Amino acid sequence: MSTAIIDDAPFGRFHKKMFLLTSGGQFIDGYLLSIIGVVVLGMSKDLGMTASEEGLVGAAALVGLFIGGLIFGRLTDRIGRQLLFTLHFIAIAVASIASTFVTDPTQVVLLRVVIGIALGADYAIGSSLLSEWLPRTQRGRVMGMLIMAWFVGATAAYLVGYALISLLGDEAWRWALGSAAVPAIIFTLARIGTPESPRWLINRGRADEAHAVLRRVYGDAATPEAIGELASDEQARGIGVFDVFRGDYLKRMVFVCLFWLLQIVPLFAIYSFGPTILEAFKLSGGNASIIGSALISLLFLLGCVPALRLIETRGRRPLVVWSFALMTVPLAVLGFAPSAPVGVVLVCFCAYALFSGGPSILEFIYPTELFPTEIRATAVGIGTAVSRVGAAIGTYLLPIGLDRIGVGATMLIMAAITLVGFVVSAAMAPETRGRRLVDVSGGAAVPQPAETTRAS
User: Fold this and answer.
1) pLDDT tens-digit map of 220-233
2) Taking CA 26 as the corner, what is the angle to CA 428 and CA 264, rounded to the nearest 5 degrees?
3) How does residue 145 score in pLDDT terms, banded at 50, 70 and 90?
4) Predicted confidence (pLDDT) per residue in 115-131, tens digit
5) Segment (H or E) for 431
6) How far, in Å, CA of 414 to CA of 364, rounded?
7) In whole angstroms, what is the distance from residue 121 CA to residue 128 CA?
8) What is the pLDDT of residue 279?
9) Burial track 417-434 (b if 16+ CB lie within 10 A, e otherwise)
10) How far is CA 249 from the centre of its chain?
């Protein structure tokens, strides 16, 4: 059985450790991108920010994610996963501490861009490294769980922000932005000594190093025969960066970019300005909107739980198609009935959060499964970059939209974006459940939508 040493290995302590280390990047990402929504009102008052400047602050990290994904995705494929797995967290820690001393909006924007670049790097580095270590029976579930760390980080941001505002008032925003340095430092230290991906090592002709790494992780199971099987699967095939934009890989790249972008634009806008949106629906009252956002964040987390089961029982394709369809409904209700009773508004936000679990967990599954080792991190980086362009535009325009066209029209635009996501997924989403990474990423054809629709 080819590549049994990785694809058919039992899921053990090492895999759990790798997941926890990788999830640290998503925790910090969720924390940093959500904390800005909690403190933007106090920051705006203290720094005298306009609505446009608020949008720039919210979008700045997303612009950085675009840059970081493009640059570090390709760099990760060239020089390896492990070397970069630690270094970028140092930049996050330094920029977070510097955020406590800013004196004008421009400084905040620049620091948020730096933070975003580091976060974009982590998307490509962490997800590629983790996916290349996981057994195939657990790959979808474990990769999907990464997004849960994002929601945990987002929830933590709301709770920390609420606590700091309650204690310190409007000045709390400085401490809240600086608080991200704590988990960044912790995960920097924890990631030291992480092993390199043996798939990448073999792909680069470094079979002896791959053997040493596998012996370190799997012991006697790392036999010469097992290494030979892995080498046969992961030998360099002359695939280069430009192959991402050719043939079947181009089709996969288009799908990944579109589904990720169309899912993330409304989600990031809601997350970045959750308190502001709830205030527009007359759900303010002191810090009540922050607590409401924390509860919505928890529901986003809970929405991932059934999706993690369905990803392995029903498959990737039906999950992404039906999730987009169901996500459209509550956004449309909010758009057509912006003056609905408080209970209706909360139910709609909760329903959207729960239904979004499917596309959310697939953010890390599809990009890592559909591309081979030579270009896996590059593809993740491109997907991250494209999705963040849309997210940055949406996040920038959301406060302006609330101010100029109202909350109803803004929600209808989000519903339309989500509906397009349903159409794209129904037309293009492949099925990759239960297959070896080498097969699904290019060693064998991926089932086309029509085939997977009949199977589902």
Assistant:
1) 777 777 777 777 77
2) 40
3) very high
4) 999 999 999 999 999 99
5) none
6) 23
7) 11
8) 62
9) bbbbbbebbbebbbbbbe
10) 21
Do 77 and 179 form a contact (C-beta atoms < 8 A)?
Answer: no
Count other C-beta atoms under 10 Å from residue 448's C-beta. Answer: 12
Helix (H) or strand (E) holding 104: none
Q: What is the DSSP string of 299-346?
A: HHHHHHHHHHHHHHHT-HHHHHHHHHHHHHHHHHHHHH-TT--HHHHH
CATH classification of the domain holding 334: 1.20.1250.20
pLDDT at 48 over 90: no
Split into its structural domains, the chain has a count of: 1
Q: Does residue 277 sit in helix, strand or coil?
A: helix
What are the pLDDT digits (tens) for 334-387?
888 877 777 787 788 888 888 999 999 999 899 999 998 889 999 999 998 988
Residue 246 has which token pair? 């050719």
How far is CA 373 from each of CA 73, 143, 233, 236, 237, rounded to the nearest angstrom?
12, 16, 10, 9, 10
Among residues 25, 114, 121, 20, which one has the least CA distance to residue 70?
121
Q: Give the tokens for residue 408.
A: 């109803």
In this predicted model, what pLDDT tens digit does every residue of 10-19 receive, in sequence order?
899 999 999 9
Answer whether 453's CB lies under 8 Å from 298's CB: no
d(CA 342, CA 278): 10
Which residue carries 């987390």 as its tokens? 301
pLDDT at residue 427 greater than cutoff 90: yes
Domain of residue 36 covers 4-455
Q: Which residue has the tokens 């920010």?
A: 49
Nearest to 352 by CA among 302, 316, 395, 288: 302
